[in-house]
Amino acid sequence: MRLTSFSDYAFRLLMFAASNADRLVTIEETARRYSISKGHLMKVANELTRAGFLKAVRGRSGGLILGMPAQDIRLSQVLAAVEPDFALAECFGGGNLCLITPHCQLRKALGEALAAFIGTLDRYTLADLVLDPAVFTLPPAQPEPDAGENRSSSAGGRSTAGGTGVTLERVKGIEPSS
To answer: 21 with 102, same domain?
Structure first.
C-alpha cells in the first residue's frame, strides 16, 4: 500500500506548520523546504484549509497557520480528508467484477489490515510529529545544467530524489535489483 503524493504532502505541510506554530508559513517557503511543486502544494493547502486543519491568512504578509491545536489533529482524520479512497482491491469498491468475491477470504484479511493501519494512525496526533524548525533547512542549490546537457537523471534506470543523484531505493534502504 502506498499513500498518494497528495496525502504525503498534506502530512508534510501540516508538520511544517506545526513545527513553526509561532508564525505564519507560506506555500512557497514550504515547497522550497521540501523541494516539491508549489502548484501541487497549493492544492493540498486548499484542501487542508477546507477541512479546517489549516487557516489561511490573506494579504501581503499572509500565510498558513494551524486551524486547530496540533494535539487535536489525528493523523487518521487528515488521511480520511485527503485520500480519495481506501479500496485496497477491486472487491472494496463499486463495480466489483471479481467472480470469487462471495467465497474469497482476501477481502477479510485486507479489511483487517486496513483497520489496523487506520487504528494506528488514530493513536497519533500532529503534535507527535512536531520537529525543531532548524531541521527544515533549505536544500543546497542545484547548479543549472548547461543548455547542451540532458536535464533528466536516470541513475541506471532508477528514480532519483529531486535530481540529486541519490536513488530512491537508497533513500528507502532498498538494495537496487540488477
So the answer is: yes
Note whether residue 131 is domain-resident: yes
Same domain, 173 and 108: no
83 with 164, same domain: the answer is no
Pairing of strands 63-66, 54-57: antiparallel
Nearest to 16 by CA among 72, 66, 77: 66
* H or E element, residue 44: helix 38-50
Residues 43-98: pLDDT tens digits? 999 999 999 999 999 998 999 999 999 999 999 999 999 997 887 777 777 788 88
Q: Is residue 65 domain-resident? A: yes
* Cell numbers describing residue 33: 523546504
Closest CA to 109 of 91, 97, 133, 136: 91
> 152 and 164 in contact (C-beta within 8 Å)?
no
pLDDT digits (tens, 9 = 90+) for 114-124: 999 999 999 99
> Which of 83, 107, 112 has its CA nearest to residue 93?
107
Q: What integer pLDDT is reported at residue 146 of this predicted model?
A: 60
- 176 and 114 belong to one structural domain: no
